[in-house]
Backbone:
Protein backbone atom coordinates (compact mmCIF):
# COMPACT_ATOMS: atom_id res chain seq x y z
CA UNK A 1 0.00 0.00 0.00
CA UNK A 2 3.01 2.27 0.46
CA UNK A 3 3.44 2.19 -3.29
CA UNK A 4 0.00 3.72 -3.77
CA UNK A 5 0.12 6.79 -6.01
CA UNK A 6 -0.77 10.22 -4.65
CA UNK A 7 -4.18 10.51 -6.27
CA UNK A 8 -4.59 14.10 -5.16
CA UNK A 9 -1.58 15.05 -7.26
CA UNK A 10 -3.25 13.65 -10.42
CA UNK A 11 -5.37 15.83 -12.67
CA UNK A 12 -9.12 15.26 -12.20
CA UNK A 13 -9.38 13.87 -15.75
CA UNK A 14 -6.62 11.30 -15.26
CA UNK A 15 -8.04 10.24 -11.90
CA UNK A 16 -11.54 9.90 -13.33
CA UNK A 17 -10.26 7.75 -16.20
CA UNK A 18 -8.45 5.47 -13.75
CA UNK A 19 -11.51 5.03 -11.49
CA UNK A 20 -13.82 4.56 -14.46
CA UNK A 21 -11.57 1.91 -16.02
CA UNK A 22 -11.23 0.05 -12.72
CA UNK A 23 -14.96 -0.07 -11.93
CA UNK A 24 -15.81 -0.96 -15.55
CA UNK A 25 -13.35 -3.85 -15.61
CA UNK A 26 -13.59 -5.17 -12.05
CA UNK A 27 -17.04 -4.53 -10.55
CA UNK A 28 -19.24 -7.62 -11.08
CA UNK A 29 -22.04 -6.90 -13.60
CA UNK A 30 -24.67 -8.87 -11.62
CA UNK A 31 -24.23 -6.53 -8.62
CA UNK A 32 -24.81 -3.29 -10.52
CA UNK A 33 -27.74 -1.02 -9.57
CA UNK A 34 -29.03 -3.27 -6.76
CA UNK A 35 -32.41 -2.32 -5.31
CA UNK A 36 -31.71 -3.63 -1.82
CA UNK A 37 -28.93 -3.54 0.71
CA UNK A 38 -26.17 -5.82 -0.56
CA UNK A 39 -25.28 -8.74 1.71
CA UNK A 40 -21.72 -9.37 2.81
CA UNK A 41 -21.37 -12.80 1.18
CA UNK A 42 -22.10 -11.37 -2.27
CA UNK A 43 -19.94 -8.25 -1.76
CA UNK A 44 -16.89 -9.94 -0.24
CA UNK A 45 -15.11 -10.74 -3.55
CA UNK A 46 -15.49 -7.08 -4.57
CA UNK A 47 -14.20 -5.95 -1.16
CA UNK A 48 -11.15 -8.18 -1.65
CA UNK A 49 -10.54 -6.62 -5.07
CA UNK A 50 -10.79 -3.11 -3.61
CA UNK A 51 -8.54 -4.07 -0.73
CA UNK A 52 -5.89 -5.47 -3.04
CA UNK A 53 -5.95 -2.17 -4.92
CA UNK A 54 -5.88 -0.11 -1.68
CA UNK A 55 -9.26 1.49 -2.48
CA UNK A 56 -11.51 0.33 0.37
CA UNK A 57 -11.36 3.60 2.31
CA UNK A 58 -11.24 6.62 -0.02
CA UNK A 59 -11.55 9.08 2.89
CA UNK A 60 -9.15 7.52 5.41
CA UNK A 61 -5.61 8.86 5.80
CA UNK A 62 -2.88 6.94 4.02
CA UNK A 63 -1.31 6.18 7.39
CA UNK A 64 -4.21 3.78 8.03
CA UNK A 65 -4.40 2.38 4.51
CA UNK A 66 -6.84 4.91 3.05
CA UNK A 67 -6.63 6.81 -0.24
CA UNK A 68 -6.81 10.16 1.58
CA UNK A 69 -8.72 11.72 -1.28
CA UNK A 70 -9.37 15.44 -1.26
CA UNK A 71 -12.93 16.70 -1.77
CA UNK A 72 -12.80 16.99 -5.55
CA UNK A 73 -11.31 13.51 -5.99
CA UNK A 74 -13.76 12.05 -3.48
CA UNK A 75 -16.66 13.42 -5.51
CA UNK A 76 -15.21 11.91 -8.68
CA UNK A 77 -14.83 8.56 -6.92
CA UNK A 78 -18.46 8.67 -5.78
CA UNK A 79 -19.74 9.85 -9.16
CA UNK A 80 -17.99 6.95 -10.86
CA UNK A 81 -19.40 4.50 -8.30
CA UNK A 82 -22.81 5.90 -9.15
CA UNK A 83 -22.34 5.68 -12.89
CA UNK A 84 -21.25 2.05 -12.68
CA UNK A 85 -24.01 1.12 -10.22
CA UNK A 86 -21.55 0.00 -7.53
CA UNK A 87 -23.49 -1.12 -4.42
CA UNK A 88 -22.64 -0.07 -0.87
CA UNK A 89 -20.92 -2.99 0.77
CA UNK A 90 -21.55 -3.31 4.54
CA UNK A 91 -19.23 -0.36 5.06
CA UNK A 92 -20.02 1.02 8.52
CA UNK A 93 -16.52 0.09 9.66
CA UNK A 94 -15.13 2.46 7.05
CA UNK A 95 -17.65 5.29 7.13
CA UNK A 96 -18.55 5.27 10.83
CA UNK A 97 -16.30 3.28 13.15
CA UNK A 98 -13.02 4.26 11.44
CA UNK A 99 -13.46 8.04 11.67
CA UNK A 100 -14.59 7.78 15.29
CA UNK A 101 -11.73 5.55 16.42
CA UNK A 102 -9.27 7.86 14.66
CA UNK A 103 -10.69 10.72 16.70
CA UNK A 104 -11.65 9.15 20.03
CA UNK A 105 -10.06 5.68 20.13
CA UNK A 106 -6.98 4.63 22.08
CA UNK A 107 -3.84 3.69 20.17
CA UNK A 108 -4.55 0.02 20.96
CA UNK A 109 -8.11 0.31 19.60
CA UNK A 110 -6.86 1.96 16.42
CA UNK A 111 -4.17 -0.64 15.89
CA UNK A 112 -6.54 -3.52 16.55
CA UNK A 113 -9.72 -2.43 14.77
CA UNK A 114 -8.67 -0.20 11.86
CA UNK A 115 -6.62 -2.75 9.85
CA UNK A 116 -9.19 -5.50 10.42
CA UNK A 117 -12.07 -3.23 9.40
CA UNK A 118 -10.16 -2.28 6.27
CA UNK A 119 -9.40 -5.86 5.28
CA UNK A 120 -13.03 -6.96 5.79
CA UNK A 121 -12.13 -9.32 8.61
CA UNK A 122 -14.37 -7.21 10.88
CA UNK A 123 -17.80 -6.18 9.58
CA UNK A 124 -19.73 -3.69 11.72
CA UNK A 125 -23.35 -2.98 12.52
CA UNK A 126 -24.82 -0.07 14.45
CA UNK A 127 -26.66 -0.80 17.71
CA UNK A 128 -28.36 2.45 18.60
CA UNK A 129 -32.16 2.14 18.22
CA UNK A 130 -34.26 0.23 20.75
CA UNK A 131 -37.96 -0.63 20.82
CA UNK A 132 -38.66 2.58 22.82
CA UNK A 133 -35.76 4.70 21.71
CA UNK A 134 -35.62 5.70 18.04
CA UNK A 135 -36.14 9.40 17.42
CA UNK A 136 -35.69 9.93 21.13
CA UNK A 137 -32.47 7.94 21.12
CA UNK A 138 -31.25 9.30 24.45
CA UNK A 139 -34.04 7.32 26.17
CA UNK A 140 -32.21 4.08 25.44
CA UNK A 141 -32.28 1.51 28.23
CA UNK A 142 -29.76 -1.19 27.27
CA UNK A 143 -27.39 -1.05 30.21
CA UNK A 144 -23.72 -1.78 30.82
CA UNK A 145 -22.49 -2.26 34.38
CA UNK A 146 -18.81 -2.34 35.33
CA UNK A 147 -17.82 -5.67 36.90
CA UNK A 148 -14.10 -6.12 37.49
CA UNK A 149 -12.35 -5.56 34.17
CA UNK A 150 -15.55 -6.09 32.17
CA UNK A 151 -18.73 -4.33 31.17
CA UNK A 152 -21.84 -6.50 31.53
CA UNK A 153 -24.51 -5.61 28.96
CA UNK A 154 -28.25 -6.33 29.15
CA UNK A 155 -31.06 -5.14 26.90
CA UNK A 156 -32.29 -5.10 23.31
CA UNK A 157 -31.54 -3.25 20.08
CA UNK A 158 -33.82 -3.17 17.04
CA UNK A 159 -33.63 -2.26 13.32
CA UNK A 160 -29.92 -3.11 13.40
CA UNK A 161 -29.05 -3.15 9.68
CA UNK A 162 -27.25 -6.26 8.49
CA UNK A 163 -26.47 -7.44 12.04
CA UNK A 164 -26.73 -10.99 10.70
CA UNK A 165 -23.71 -10.30 8.47
CA UNK A 166 -21.72 -8.42 11.09
CA UNK A 167 -18.83 -9.71 13.16
CA UNK A 168 -18.93 -6.66 15.46
CA UNK A 169 -21.39 -4.12 16.79
CA UNK A 170 -20.73 -0.55 17.94
CA UNK A 171 -23.44 0.34 20.38
CA UNK A 172 -24.79 2.91 22.78
CA UNK A 173 -25.42 1.71 26.32
CA UNK A 174 -26.60 3.35 29.50
CA UNK A 175 -23.79 3.42 32.04
CA UNK A 176 -25.30 5.90 34.52
CA UNK A 177 -28.99 5.67 35.32
CA UNK A 178 -28.77 8.54 37.82
CA UNK A 179 -27.36 11.20 35.48
CA UNK A 180 -29.34 14.48 35.62
CA UNK A 181 -29.75 14.61 31.85
CA UNK A 182 -30.38 11.30 30.07
CA UNK A 183 -27.75 12.18 27.42
CA UNK A 184 -25.06 12.27 30.10
CA UNK A 185 -25.26 8.62 31.20
CA UNK A 186 -24.56 6.98 27.82
CA UNK A 187 -21.36 5.30 26.59
CA UNK A 188 -20.16 3.91 23.25
CA UNK A 189 -19.00 0.31 23.39
CA UNK A 190 -17.67 -2.18 20.83
CA UNK A 191 -18.60 -5.86 21.00
CA UNK A 192 -17.87 -9.02 19.08
CA UNK A 193 -21.26 -10.34 17.87
CA UNK A 194 -20.19 -13.90 18.76
CA UNK A 195 -19.80 -13.00 22.46
CA UNK A 196 -21.93 -15.41 24.57
CA UNK A 197 -25.32 -13.85 25.42
CA UNK A 198 -25.82 -12.01 22.10
CA UNK A 199 -28.71 -13.24 19.93
CA UNK A 200 -29.37 -11.81 16.46
CA UNK A 201 -32.81 -12.28 14.93
CA UNK A 202 -33.48 -11.00 11.37
CA UNK A 203 -36.64 -9.03 10.51
CA UNK A 204 -38.19 -9.31 7.03
CA UNK A 205 -39.26 -6.01 5.43
CA UNK A 206 -42.22 -5.30 3.10
CA UNK A 207 -40.09 -6.02 0.01
CA UNK A 208 -39.34 -9.49 1.39
CA UNK A 209 -35.69 -8.72 2.24
CA UNK A 210 -34.00 -9.43 5.56
CA UNK A 211 -32.26 -6.11 5.84
CA UNK A 212 -32.28 -5.48 9.57
CA UNK A 213 -32.45 -7.41 12.86
CA UNK A 214 -33.33 -7.45 16.52
CA UNK A 215 -30.26 -7.95 18.72
CA UNK A 216 -30.64 -9.21 22.29
CA UNK A 217 -28.04 -8.89 25.08
CA UNK A 218 -28.28 -11.24 28.02
CA UNK A 219 -25.46 -10.73 30.57
CA UNK A 220 -22.97 -10.10 27.79
CA UNK A 221 -19.42 -9.54 29.06
CA UNK A 222 -17.07 -7.38 27.05
CA UNK A 223 -13.68 -6.09 28.23
CA UNK A 224 -13.72 -2.55 29.65
CA UNK A 225 -11.09 -1.77 27.00
CA UNK A 226 -13.93 -1.94 24.43
CA UNK A 227 -15.26 1.39 25.69
CA UNK A 228 -14.62 4.17 23.15
CA UNK A 229 -13.79 7.58 24.63
CA UNK A 230 -14.62 8.22 28.25
CA UNK A 231 -17.35 6.58 30.34
CA UNK A 232 -20.69 8.42 30.06
CA UNK A 233 -19.50 10.54 27.15
CA UNK A 234 -20.84 8.35 24.35
CA UNK A 235 -23.53 10.84 23.37
CA UNK A 236 -21.03 13.40 22.08
CA UNK A 237 -19.29 10.70 20.04
CA UNK A 238 -22.60 9.34 18.74
CA UNK A 239 -23.67 12.80 17.64
CA UNK A 240 -20.48 13.14 15.60
CA UNK A 241 -21.15 9.71 14.08
CA UNK A 242 -24.73 10.64 13.22
CA UNK A 243 -23.52 13.63 11.23
CA UNK A 244 -21.23 11.38 9.17
CA UNK A 245 -24.14 8.98 8.69
CA UNK A 246 -26.38 11.78 7.46
CA UNK A 247 -23.67 12.74 5.00
CA UNK A 248 -23.52 9.15 3.67
CA UNK A 249 -27.31 8.89 3.43
CA UNK A 250 -27.34 12.35 1.84
CA UNK A 251 -25.28 11.18 -1.15
CA UNK A 252 -27.44 11.72 -4.25
CA UNK A 253 -26.24 8.36 -5.61
CA UNK A 254 -29.38 6.29 -5.06
CA UNK A 255 -31.89 8.93 -6.23
CA UNK A 256 -29.64 9.43 -9.26
CA UNK A 257 -29.90 5.70 -10.12
CA UNK A 258 -33.66 5.91 -9.82
CA UNK A 259 -33.78 9.03 -11.99
CA UNK A 260 -31.77 7.26 -14.68
CA UNK A 261 -34.28 4.37 -14.66
CA UNK A 262 -37.13 6.89 -14.87
CA UNK A 263 -35.51 8.59 -17.84
CA UNK A 264 -35.01 5.29 -19.71
CA UNK A 265 -38.58 4.13 -19.10
CA UNK A 266 -40.03 7.53 -19.97
CA UNK A 267 -38.06 7.58 -23.24
CA UNK A 268 -39.11 4.03 -24.12
CA UNK A 269 -42.76 4.85 -23.48
CA UNK A 270 -42.67 8.29 -25.14
CA UNK A 271 -43.72 10.00 -21.89
CA UNK A 272 -41.62 13.11 -22.53
CA UNK A 273 -44.18 14.10 -25.20
CA UNK A 274 -46.42 14.99 -22.24
CA UNK A 275 -45.18 18.44 -21.21
CA UNK A 276 -46.60 18.01 -17.68
CA UNK A 277 -44.52 14.85 -17.23
CA UNK A 278 -41.44 16.49 -18.78
CA UNK A 279 -41.75 19.48 -16.41
CA UNK A 280 -41.96 17.27 -13.34
CA UNK A 281 -39.04 15.17 -14.56
CA UNK A 282 -36.93 18.30 -15.15
CA UNK A 283 -37.58 19.59 -11.65
CA UNK A 284 -36.35 16.29 -10.22
CA UNK A 285 -33.32 16.22 -12.54
CA UNK A 286 -32.38 19.75 -11.43
CA UNK A 287 -32.87 18.76 -7.79
CA UNK A 288 -30.36 15.96 -8.31
CA UNK A 289 -27.86 18.46 -9.76
CA UNK A 290 -28.36 20.80 -6.81
CA UNK A 291 -28.04 17.91 -4.38
CA UNK A 292 -24.70 17.03 -5.99
CA UNK A 293 -23.44 20.57 -5.25
CA UNK A 294 -24.78 20.58 -1.71
CA UNK A 295 -23.31 17.15 -1.02
CA UNK A 296 -19.96 18.34 -2.42
CA UNK A 297 -20.02 21.32 -0.04
CA UNK A 298 -20.39 19.05 3.00
CA UNK A 299 -17.74 16.61 1.73
CA UNK A 300 -15.41 19.61 1.35
CA UNK A 301 -16.11 20.63 4.95
CA UNK A 302 -15.21 17.15 6.22
CA UNK A 303 -12.04 17.14 4.15
CA UNK A 304 -10.99 20.45 5.68
CA UNK A 305 -11.27 18.72 9.05
CA UNK A 306 -14.24 20.85 10.13
CA UNK A 307 -17.04 19.15 12.07
CA UNK A 308 -20.41 18.87 10.35
CA UNK A 309 -23.08 21.12 11.80
CA UNK A 310 -26.81 20.68 12.23
CA UNK A 311 -27.35 21.96 8.68
CA UNK A 312 -26.41 18.46 7.42
CA UNK A 313 -30.07 17.62 8.23
CA UNK A 314 -31.06 19.68 5.18
CA UNK A 315 -29.10 17.32 2.90
CA UNK A 316 -30.57 14.23 4.54
CA UNK A 317 -34.15 15.48 4.15
CA UNK A 318 -33.72 16.71 0.61
CA UNK A 319 -31.94 13.61 -0.74
CA UNK A 320 -34.33 11.08 0.77
CA UNK A 321 -37.47 13.04 -0.12
CA UNK A 322 -36.25 13.61 -3.71
CA UNK A 323 -35.55 9.88 -3.98
CA UNK A 324 -39.11 9.12 -2.88
CA UNK A 325 -40.56 11.64 -5.36
CA UNK A 326 -38.55 10.00 -8.16
CA UNK A 327 -39.76 6.50 -7.24
CA UNK A 328 -43.36 7.80 -6.98
CA UNK A 329 -42.99 9.00 -10.57
CA UNK A 330 -41.40 5.68 -11.57
CA UNK A 331 -44.47 3.90 -10.25
CA UNK A 332 -46.65 6.20 -12.33
CA UNK A 333 -44.47 5.79 -15.45
CA UNK A 334 -44.43 2.01 -15.12
CA UNK A 335 -48.26 1.79 -14.92
CA UNK A 336 -49.25 -1.90 -14.58
CA UNK A 337 -45.56 -2.93 -14.62
CA UNK A 338 -45.16 -1.11 -11.32
CA UNK A 339 -47.65 -3.31 -9.53
CA UNK A 340 -45.55 -6.47 -9.22
CA UNK A 341 -42.13 -7.09 -7.74
CA UNK A 342 -39.35 -8.63 -9.83
CA UNK A 343 -37.37 -7.59 -12.92
CA UNK A 344 -39.64 -6.84 -15.85
CA UNK A 345 -39.10 -5.82 -19.42
CA UNK A 346 -40.79 -2.44 -19.72
CA UNK A 347 -40.80 -1.48 -23.41
CA UNK A 348 -37.24 -2.76 -23.71
CA UNK A 349 -35.98 -1.42 -20.35
CA UNK A 350 -35.21 -3.87 -17.54
CA UNK A 351 -36.54 -2.55 -14.23
CA UNK A 352 -38.09 -3.62 -10.93
CA UNK A 353 -40.15 -0.55 -10.18
CA UNK A 354 -42.02 -1.74 -7.11
CA UNK A 355 -38.81 -2.81 -5.38
CA UNK A 356 -37.27 0.61 -6.20
CA UNK A 357 -40.33 2.22 -4.67
CA UNK A 358 -40.05 0.10 -1.50
CA UNK A 359 -36.31 0.73 -1.28
CA UNK A 360 -36.81 4.49 -1.15
CA UNK A 361 -39.52 4.42 1.56
CA UNK A 362 -37.44 4.04 4.74
CA UNK A 363 -34.91 6.71 3.68
CA UNK A 364 -37.00 9.31 5.50
CA UNK A 365 -36.89 7.19 8.69
CA UNK A 366 -33.38 5.74 9.15
CA UNK A 367 -30.58 8.01 10.24
CA UNK A 368 -33.25 10.19 11.93
CA UNK A 369 -36.73 10.78 10.47
CA UNK A 370 -37.56 13.81 8.30
CA UNK A 371 -39.76 15.23 11.06
CA UNK A 372 -36.91 15.06 13.53
CA UNK A 373 -34.47 16.57 11.00
CA UNK A 374 -36.90 19.45 10.47
CA UNK A 375 -37.05 19.98 14.23
CA UNK A 376 -33.24 20.13 14.29
CA UNK A 377 -33.16 22.70 11.48
CA UNK A 378 -35.87 24.77 13.15
CA UNK A 379 -34.13 24.77 16.48
CA UNK A 380 -30.41 24.94 15.73
CA UNK A 381 -30.13 26.43 12.25
CA UNK A 382 -33.13 28.78 12.04
CA UNK A 383 -33.12 29.24 15.83
CA UNK A 384 -36.90 29.34 15.97
CA UNK A 385 -38.42 29.38 19.45
CA UNK A 386 -39.30 25.97 20.90
CA UNK A 387 -42.86 25.40 22.09
C1 LIG B 1 -34.24 0.47 6.91
C2 LIG B 1 -33.87 0.91 8.30
C3 LIG B 1 -32.59 0.63 8.77
C4 LIG B 1 -32.23 1.00 10.06
N1 LIG B 1 -30.97 0.69 10.51
C5 LIG B 1 -30.63 0.98 11.79
C6 LIG B 1 -29.35 0.57 12.31
O1 LIG B 1 -28.55 -0.05 11.61
N2 LIG B 1 -29.07 0.84 13.60
C7 LIG B 1 -29.93 1.53 14.42
O2 LIG B 1 -29.59 1.76 15.56
N3 LIG B 1 -31.15 1.93 13.95
C8 LIG B 1 -31.51 1.67 12.67
N4 LIG B 1 -32.75 2.06 12.19
C9 LIG B 1 -33.69 2.70 13.11
C10 LIG B 1 -33.93 4.18 12.84
O3 LIG B 1 -32.85 4.94 13.26
C11 LIG B 1 -35.23 4.55 13.57
O4 LIG B 1 -36.28 3.85 12.93
C12 LIG B 1 -35.51 6.03 13.52
O5 LIG B 1 -34.59 6.75 14.31
C13 LIG B 1 -36.94 6.36 14.01
O6 LIG B 1 -37.19 5.79 15.24
P1 LIG B 1 -38.46 4.86 15.50
O7 LIG B 1 -38.53 3.84 14.41
O8 LIG B 1 -38.38 4.39 16.90
O9 LIG B 1 -39.72 5.81 15.31
P2 LIG B 1 -40.33 6.81 16.38
O10 LIG B 1 -39.23 7.57 17.03
O11 LIG B 1 -41.25 6.05 17.26
O12 LIG B 1 -41.15 7.80 15.46
C14 LIG B 1 -42.45 7.47 14.93
C15 LIG B 1 -42.94 8.69 14.15
O13 LIG B 1 -43.06 9.83 15.02
C16 LIG B 1 -42.32 10.93 14.51
N5 LIG B 1 -41.70 11.68 15.60
C17 LIG B 1 -41.02 11.14 16.65
N6 LIG B 1 -40.57 12.13 17.45
C18 LIG B 1 -40.99 13.31 16.91
C19 LIG B 1 -40.86 14.68 17.28
N7 LIG B 1 -40.18 15.05 18.37
N8 LIG B 1 -41.41 15.62 16.47
C20 LIG B 1 -42.09 15.26 15.34
N9 LIG B 1 -42.27 13.97 14.94
C21 LIG B 1 -41.72 13.01 15.71
C22 LIG B 1 -41.25 10.32 13.63
O14 LIG B 1 -40.81 11.20 12.63
C23 LIG B 1 -42.00 9.13 13.03
O15 LIG B 1 -42.77 9.55 11.93
C24 LIG B 1 -33.14 1.71 10.89
C25 LIG B 1 -34.43 2.00 10.42
C26 LIG B 1 -34.79 1.62 9.14
C27 LIG B 1 -36.16 1.95 8.66
Residues:
Amino acid sequence: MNAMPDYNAMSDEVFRREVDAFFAAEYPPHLRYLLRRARWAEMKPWWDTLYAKGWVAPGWPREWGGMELGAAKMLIYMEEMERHGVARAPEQGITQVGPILMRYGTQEQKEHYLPRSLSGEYIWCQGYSEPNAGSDLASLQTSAVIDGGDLVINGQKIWTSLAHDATHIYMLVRTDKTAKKKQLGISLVLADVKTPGITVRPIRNIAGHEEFCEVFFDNVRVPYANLVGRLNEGWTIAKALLSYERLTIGSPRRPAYALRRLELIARAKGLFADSGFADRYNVLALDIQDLGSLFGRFVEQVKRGEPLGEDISMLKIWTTETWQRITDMLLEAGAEDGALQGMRDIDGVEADILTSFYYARPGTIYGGSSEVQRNILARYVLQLPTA
The radius of gyration is 21 Å.
